[in-house]
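User: LamG domain protein. Structure?
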Amino acid sequence: MKSQSAMEYLMTYGWAILVIAVVLAALYSLGIFNPNSFAPKASAGSCEVVRPFGPTTSTDIHSTGTCTNMLPKYVASFNGNGQISVLMPTLSHSITYTAWVNFASLAQSNYGDTGQIIGWEPGYGPSLLFLQPSIYQFEFSVWYANTQQEAVLSGTTPKLNTWYFMAGTYNESSGLIQVYVNNKVYNQTISKETLETGNVLTIGAWPSQLSYFKGELANVQIYNNSISSNQISALYQEGIGGDPIDLTNLVGWWPLNGNANDYSGNNYNGKETNVAYSSTWYRTYSAP
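Assistant: Predicted structure:
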């Protein structure tokens, strides 16, 4: 009798239990149970830098809104053949790049690396690269006089579908170049040379060398000085939606939260080619 009752129970409720299990599995695969699904998300333009006296000025400069402690609604998605181009004046002397990066592929490009993250055309000045498959390390390189390159490697082998905070700095007065991966820093001192960039900033590619990044990028910032290790650490702790840390020396700020606009107040808006914006990116993101 007990076995018969159990069988009747399964026959009566088994399909309902199976349906519930399938629904729960589907919800899990959609990220419904990911806490980031319920985190507040900032829209494009909800935080920006205000320059009351116009672009490139710093008098009374301030920020409005806040992105720190919020997730962006979107991040830029690169398919391995896309880029964002920004017309900018030539920068010189010390410099800092920061960005949040998620690699979808480590496939080798024609140039032999796995895609430039931030750099310049013509192909000199500082750049954040991801190196050859035989090395698999983040790199921050500095070109000067358009002839010589110095670089520092991170020693970090990244994982696919994992978000990383990256930064690179060059201090012209000391000759120190640094690359940061999350909260770790790697240093190298080079000869003290005057740095000069090209006049077209490229995000996600080094077009002239067919070096294209494949994955997702967010919160790209450029400063015209070598910001401190403490400031870099603070940017990392702010998370993927963090506000710029040094408004006076901020040159450009591209959150990539649904567009390629510059929110630094300098109006260096980017032009996208083969770039999409993902709204489900947060499933692979873990806050610092």
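The two ends are 58 Å apart (CA to CA). Residues 41-284 form a domain with the Jelly Rolls fold (CATH 2.60.120.200).
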